[in-house]
Amino acid sequence: MRKLNIAIVGLGNIGSYLFNYLKVNKKILTEKNNCLPIVKYVSAKNKKRKRNIKIKKKQWLKNYLDATKIKDVDLIIELIGGAEGPAKKLVFNALKNKKHVVTANKALIAKYGDQLSKIAEKNKVNLEFEASVCGGVPIIRSLKEGLIANKISKIYGIFNGTSNYILSSMDKENKNFKDVLSNAKKLGYAEANPSADLNGDDVASKLKILTSLCFNSFLNDKIYVEGIKEIDKSDIDNANKLGYKIKLLGFAELLNNKIYQRVHPTLIKKDSYVASIDGVLNAVIIDGKPVGQSIIQGEGAGPAATTSALVSDISSILRGNVKFPFSLSSKERKKLSFADIEDRTFSAYLRIEVIDKPGVLSNITNIFSKNKVSIKRLVQDPNKNKKISSIIIVTHNSKNRSLSKVVKEVSKKNFVKTKPKLIRIDEY
Hints:
Layout: E1 2-9, H1 13-24, H2 26-33, E2 35-43, E3 75-78, H3 85-96, E4 100-103, H4 106-123, E5 127-128, H5 139-146, E6 151-158, H6 161-172, H7 177-186, H8 195-198, H9 201-215, E7 224-225, H10 233-242, E8 244-255, E9 258-269, E10 281-289, E11 292-299, H11 303-318, E12 345-355, H12 360-370, E13 375-383, E14 388-395, E15 398-399, H13 400-411, E16 421-425
Parallel strand pairs: 1-2, 1-3, 3-4, 4-5, 7-9, 9-16
Antiparallel strand pairs: 6-8, 6-10, 8-9, 10-11, 12-14, 12-15, 12-16, 13-14
Helix pairs in contact: 1-11, 3-4, 4-9, 6-7
């Protein structure tokens, strides 16, 4: 019976959960993969931290980098996190020393995936990162294997459970952003510092990886990123009245031989599939030929979901499958043209808070006309007590560049109380 010796580096919630899983399920994993997985070593920053796992003295590595040098280590599982520091050192050294690597580190793959892929290919070892995108949603393996026959034109969806929980809770529980965020932290859905989730950076890292897999391209930083911090409860309510829901979505799409990567809050029709995905769930939608549209949904984070993805990668290595990290060799991947969002056409929702006085509305509509942005729908909601009026505008399709100019010009008017809120609309 073949054996695969494993070193787990990083013993937080996920690392500890994985350690126990591999111990309890060793027999079935061996039977399914015809190879015995052995957790030979572990390492973490704090040895004294209380954990719900039993680690033998001989298993503990004082220096985590020793895992990359020891001969009887075949596979290193990196669960440190972050694009720099120890995680970067560990993975680069492991691959250079011909060790297989499994990681859940989206930041590392998004930044250094191309370099790491070349090293893995050169040394004929695996670099697997299913757990880096959408946790228990098997999207990476689907793109690498299940959908390999398809020419993909678009991939989009909900890639962050924290932001999705916040937006759906604001909608269903009639609460503001601050209160929902506080509750998300209490429930463990949001980190103490959730900035990467809220500003869209988490989704952007995941989208870069998915784009590369979908279009056989190298990782590209040309991506528009906008988070949900500025979404107000009034925007949620207005969207409902207009027949939409607001979701933080990531998009990668091929239009006119150019790839657009974008992350931003989006108004989508209430009766669309994506609109029904609430709470901490993730959902990925792929448009391709000949398959048409494929949808994958599931838990996006947490120890159980992440372990599911990690074990999928471990099993692939147990079977002895050495594959290219991004499905194709580095020589076959392409340098494609990535376009700026300003050239993309959208319809849009705008909320403009203004002093309620004569001439304001005509002034605003003139700005729209000057920038060739056509108004599809306009609703004025006055608040007599505050002498403030909310003007809600839905536009016809316009270049993002033109929409940006409208927002900039309207913002300068002395009758405008706050910066206009623009949310793009996608009719999916």
